[in-house]
Amino acid sequence: MDTAADDTVTDRPAGAPDGQSEGRPERSWRSWRPVLPDRARPYLPALVLYGVTKLVGLAVFASLLEYAGDYEGKNPRFGGGAHWWDVLATWDGWWYLQVAEHGYSPSLVRLGGDGLFTVQQNSVAFFPLYPALIRMVSEVTGLGLYGSGILVSVVCSFVAAAGVFAVVRLVAGARAGTIAAGLWAVAPGAGVEWAVYSESLFVAIAAWACYAVMTGRWVTAGLLAFTAGLNRPTSAVLIGAVGLAALVTLARPASRREHGVRGPVYAMVVAPLGLLGYIAWVGYRTGEATAYFTLQREGWAHFFDYGAYTLDVLRNLAVGKGDYVFAFSTPDLLSLQLVLALPFLIALMLRKKPPLVLVAYTLATIITVLGTQQMFGNTMRYLLPAFPLLLAPAAALARLRLPGLAVFFTTAALASGWYAHYVIFELGVP
After folding, report:
1. 9 vs 117, which has greater pLDDT?
2. Domain residues of the chain, as ranges?
3. How far are the Cα atoms of 42, 70, 211, 380, 419 from residue 426, in angstroms, in the given order?
4. Any stretches that span the bilayer, and where are they (predicted)?
């Protein structure tokens, strides 16, 4: 008698187990392994080097904090807290968390007098993109604002490291790109990369915007520069670099034929809108068109002075004095060494003949930092976005064999826990 089983049609060979078709061996969940996309594989060494190096530096930072114990007696807003990791959300981090929690209340409150600060500090000095991401991640994941801020910074730092790798690889090869990502992890000021600070987000945007220009993706470059304008006022250097590269592309007949006109024009038009839009919004809400600049100058004593403050600091440090605003001996001396190394780093970078966008972005960043009155000890942090300066050192280190590189990065990672983390957060004001 025929049965239903006799009428069943199957394409499996005799004796094949259920769930396995001919020519397609069954894969159980026990044998499944994640497969890295082919396009992502070149980035893996750079990201591993970056992550391991950062972890070592953070561990040293934590041990130094616990050893000194000074953070326990400090104001939680100014470098203190109940736990060592609370330090990562102090200073500027406190302001970002305030914006993420409460939003903005733009105002210019005059304090009177003729002292250094004549306007009350206000949270609108801190651009909205980073705190908005913190709030969004908190709402989606259920994490607190502190945890969300650290998560955003860490994820963005890996995106930034990948961008540094991508840019340097185009100029000097994959090995140099990997080393550049590692160098960015131990650069002076790198302690803010895994803190509640917006540097990692900015460098992620800037690196990929430069990469987009270098590969002719003008719409992407314009949109990224626009986004950067909602993150930091120093986005002006990136916007200018993208705009200059687009203008030069249009001015040259050969490159104009290659790239067309629409893309570069789009990049030039869209790039500055984020920055200009936010500054205009602050002016509208406060009733003063130049309110943002007034707040920076009179509330934080930060303003472009064509290098007068930097020159004053250099003269004081040269004769062993500290007769200048925002004097912090240890961070200032480390920043002095970085400033003295800049001509050498710039010359080495130019010898590699990088694309115009990298040269313009780097030089504009340096001019902006050295030409502005701000905390000189933070020069290390302010120059952190100038990642193209790592191009020549990365290319030179790429000639070393693996043992030599291992010794270098081990030493640098351990030392960075002090000079890139502890010095900034505990011996100065980041």
Report:
1. 117
2. 40-426
3. 37, 8, 35, 15, 11
4. 43-65, 143-164, 170-187, 194-214, 234-251, 263-284, 333-350, 357-376, 405-425
